[in-house]
Amino acid sequence: MLTNEQSAQTLPELAAPAVQPETETMTGAVATLQALLAEGVDTIFGYPGGAIIPIYDALYDFKEQLNHVLVRHEQGGIHAAQGYARSSGKVGVVFATSGPGATNLVTGLADALIDSTPLVCITGQVFAHLLGTDAFQETDIINITTPITKWNYQVTNAEEIPEALAKAFYIARSGRPGPVLIDITKNAQQQKHDFAPYVPCTHIRSYRPVPIVRPEYIREAAALINQAKRPFVLWGQGVILGKAEQEFKAFIEKSGIPAAWTILGAGALPTDHPLNVGMLGMHGNYGPNVLTNECDVLIAIGMRFDDRVTGRLDKYAKQAKVIHLDIDPTEIDKNVATTVPVWGDCKETLPLLTALVEAKLHPEWHERFRVHMEQEVDAVIREELFPTSEEMTMGEVIQQLNELTEGEAVIVTDVGQHQMVACRYAKLNKTRSNITSGGLGTMGFALPAAIGAKFGTPHRPVVAIIGDGGVQMTIQELGTIMQTGVDVKIIILNNRFLGMVRQWQELFNDRRYSFVDIQSPDYVTVASGYGISGKRVEARAELKQSLHQMLEHPGSFLLEIMVSKENNIFPMVPQGCSVAEIRLR
Amino acid sequence: MSQQASIDRQEYNITAYTENQVGLLNRIAIIFSRRKINIESLNVSPSEIEGIHRFNIVINETEEVVGKLARQIEKQIEVLKVYYNTNADVIWQEMALYKVPTDVIAEKAIVERLLRENGARAVVIRKDYTVFETTGHREETDNLIRVLQPYGLIEFVRSARIAIIKASDGFNSKLREFERREPSTEPAENEYLNSRDKVFTM
């Protein structure tokens, strides 16, 4: 390596005592990359620029060890890193330059914070002596990103780099994960320093990522569950982030409790599992919403009672005793008052709880869910998945896709109607199969996130499902697909509207369709310009065969599917209504 | 904000022990500003322990909101511990400085008596002006402004509030706990969960 020669010259002169660890002289830029390697990083999503040139220069010598994916826009870079992190469970890494490069990360950071995605973003910054002078491409990215990062730090001296990055990775991945931004001034990247061997961070005295479980709360929770006649489990992404899918399944199967999921929790328990009763929230399933207000004990596991899940809070599960399992103490009692707070890592708390709960089946209670599901099938689902209308529905596309992938694909969705349809109907056999922007609702998320998801799980098929609005927000990332040859299947569900807003305007604003009529380019031609094969489907007769063609195609493929213009997503809990007031039509 | 909530609002003293880190003040301040809550008083200074700073923050809020804010502050990486207390649970003081023309005090005996009655102490005496200092509650320091105003008060400044928690055992033992690499076998400490009844009712 480049720096070995330098260190070979300087080391003997140190004449240090034998116990002192060997130091190595290198630039801050090289130390940055060495830190990434020590943290097990293999993929970086980034875009170079003036203030990060020294790091990119060092990267030139690390091409064999670090796969740098050149994106087309920094927002695409950070969403790709999110997709990578969500599909693989590893920390996503992003490089961007100062100023506009850094500010383009803002949406992704906010998205990653609210969806608890572990990221380490490294931004270049102007020379330390220029800070505060309005230098070229200077932006105060630390202050801009303070509310949207779990932690951030500005490095102005090469010496700080290993410790800052060690803390960054530790903070990003531990406890409730989240995004971290490290801003490195150009002088710190260039500066040479005698670095001691890299030491990963395992402790920060002011930070306690994992609380110690209190046995009395486990006992109280188990007692409540054992007395319950109508217990109901709500699970969220915490089960996936805690890698506690097996522990969760064991708990559910022993206690026999019906379980419903938030959209970020989807897939932690397979779609077909008999105790999986469906999706929660505004466009969730009928039974899980209605019966939330009839259960006697509500057990929330790794979820945060988002307003899209709870609807009107003062009419939410008021009859129920609430047990809340969460690693983040700020979530407990934040929106819903709990009877028993089980503060801890659910990988640890679930087995403790499973040991104390009695094996039950709750057949009558399950029957209630089944009856509600039958009503929903009659009112909504059958027509959505097997339509009798001439126009294609989004649901039938997902249904056909399920039949072909058999639930083995990673489904990446954007935001809007297609997202709700995909989350409701996609069959998911495995965990980490549903990647979507849940908390922030970021249109433009899916295309870059799918690219990242494929890099994170290269052995699994990755299908991006995107609306005609969202795809136009980050369509430039087709260039990233072109250049890297990454195999991503892209389905555009084109209803020629910004469908979700149009649905609200139809239902709540008297059909005043204000600026939701959006035109699209010829996506197949656009794709072909990027060297990506594609096809447009306008008739049901071609649908299945086209999906098959897409999935079998070697490499990326774009499938534009023309669906009904004015379909609405039902069921729906209108904003300001209780979950029990969910509408089937 | 419901009527009940505005009735339940009162002054709370938030005490936070933190690392001494650039940018942390902003990280804490935005927890209030994002909810459009005004900070009435803010004091940040080194604590009795080297390297650890103590924030004293005063806000007017309901206990429900203060509890959530305290937890969100404590969640920040570089914050060690957060407490919140009503005024009844703390001993608090503010310091005030008053600049008045020296000739007025020299000539008017009543002013000297008023100053003495209000516990004021001369910090600097110059030919043209004198600076007095008092400490006390807001009403007390306010009162002296009113007293001195007719006698040509030139300038006034008041410090942020500092508060000592009546029930606190101090932070030294707690810090040792934080510095331990291995988690303690004692039940996890989270004051909010310990005193749940007082924390939150929907």
Automatic annotation (TrEMBL), chain A:
Residue ranges of every copy of the Thiamine pyrophosphate enzyme central domain listed in the record: 218-351
Annotated metabolic or biological route of this protein: Amino-acid biosynthesis; L-isoleucine biosynthesis; L-isoleucine from 2-oxobutanoate: step 1/4; Amino-acid biosynthesis; L-valine biosynthesis; L-valine from pyruvate: step 1/4
GO biological process, one term: L-valine biosynthetic process
Keyword line: Amino-acid biosynthesis, Branched-chain amino acid biosynthesis, Magnesium, Metal-binding, Thiamine pyrophosphate, Transferase
GO-annotated cellular components: acetolactate synthase complex
Cofactor(s) named in the record: Mg(2+); thiamine diphosphate
InterPro entries named among the record's database cross-references: Acetolactate_synth_lsu (IPR012846), AHAS_TPP (IPR039368), DHS-like_NAD/FAD-binding_dom (IPR029035), THDP-binding (IPR029061), Thiamin_PyroP_enz_cen_dom (IPR012000), Thiamin_PyroP_enz_TPP-bd_dom (IPR012001), TPP-bd_CS (IPR000399), TPP_enz (IPR045229)
Domain Thiamine pyrophosphate enzyme N-terminal TPP-binding: from-to ranges: 26-142
Enzymatic reactions: 2 pyruvate + H(+) = (2S)-2-acetolactate + CO2
Pfam families, per the entry: TPP_enzyme_C (PF02775), TPP_enzyme_M (PF00205), TPP_enzyme_N (PF02776)
EC number, as in UniProt: 2.2.1.6
Family matches, as CDD domains: TPP_AHAS, TPP_PYR_POX_like
UniProt cofactor note: Binds 1 Mg(2+) ion per subunit. Binds 1 thiamine pyrophosphate per subunit.
PROSITE patterns: TPP_ENZYMES
Domain Thiamine pyrophosphate enzyme TPP-binding: 414-561
Record GO terms (molecular function): acetolactate synthase activity; flavin adenine dinucleotide binding; magnesium ion binding; thiamine pyrophosphate binding
Annotated family: Belongs to the TPP enzyme family.
Name recorded for this polypeptide: Acetolactate synthase
The organism of origin for this protein: Hymenobacter telluris
Gene designation: ilvB
UniProtKB/TrEMBL annotation, chain B:
Molecular function in Gene Ontology: acetolactate synthase activity; acetolactate synthase regulator activity
Subunit structure: Dimer of large and small chains.
Organism for this UniProt entry: Hymenobacter telluris
Catalysed reactions, as listed in the record: 2 pyruvate + H(+) = (2S)-2-acetolactate + CO2
Pathway(s): Amino-acid biosynthesis; L-valine biosynthesis; L-valine from pyruvate: step 1/4; Amino-acid biosynthesis; L-isoleucine biosynthesis; L-isoleucine from 2-oxobutanoate: step 1/4
Official protein name in the record: acetolactate synthase
One GO location term (cellular component): cytosol
Gene field: ilvN
Record-stated family: Belongs to the acetolactate synthase small subunit family.
Any GO BP annotation: isoleucine biosynthetic process
Record-listed E.C. numbers: 2.2.1.6
Sequence ranges assigned to domain ACT in this UniProt record: 13-87
EC category name: transferase
